[in-house]
Amino acid sequence: MRSSxxxxxxxxxxxxxxxxxxxxxPQAGGAAVGTVPAPVTGNPYANNPYAQADVQYGVPQAPxxxxxxxxDDVVTRTAxxxxxxxVFAALAWAVLPVDEANLGKSYGIAIGAGLVAMVLGxxxxxxxxxxxxxxxxxxxxxxxxxxxxxxxxDTHIADGAAMQAVIGTxxxxxxxxxxxxxxxxxxxxxxxxxxxxxxxGFVLLMAVNLLFAAFGGGDGLGFRSGHLGILFGIIGxxxxxxxxxxxxxxxxxxxxxxxxxxxxxxxxxxxTLTLVWIYMxxxxxxxxxxxxx
Length: 293
Description:
Layout: E1 52-53, E2 60-61, H1 71-95, H2 103-126, H3 132-157, H4 161-181, H5 189-216, H6 226-256, H7 264-291
Antiparallel strand pairs: 1-2
């Protein structure tokens, strides 16, 4: 099954015709959660997406242990990616003024950085291999966008909204991680199907709202303001939390199947995308709630 996150929809993070994933018996490690491993005949690594063909005999062999991705690798790369994003967000907040005289210029820089970051994110999502430079550049530009937007919301709409959004994002991450590790959230095919259907519906509605806003002005159909905005903000946060659970499962599968160490960058990139989603939904929700006071 392909991962819902485009970053993880590749070898080792999903299993489709011989690649790792949900409800499949792992070949390079322990059994997948909630499955009964099928008896292995012949070479145990015959179907491992990371197996290397033996030069002399042409028999797939397990990837070298030293080159496999570990949880420490994922944590280190994720910390580096998020650290880059936070540093550039802080710089943008401090350097780019958001007073009435300079708001247009700063906002233009933020929109430009956000668009370039989106393009880089799409490029990395469809690349076969992780590019650390590309991922870190994406994080830096995304940080500039978030820094300006957060400063604008904090200054002109809801004082303290950025810190509240950060706390909300961290709390969501910890809560989902604890729920996943304790088994309260079980990621299986049904779970994935539900999350994907909900996400597609959510994105479609937001796209329609954006089109109406572009041609009709205001907030379009009102999905991002007032009571509907609050409702869809909560839905967006819940969807982000569900995507976090999917990310945790895909990282776990990648480690079990002996994913190459380099793909820890993809794990970091995917987790960063999800955390940015959750932060933006929290920021929007807080702005709506305080703006209505």
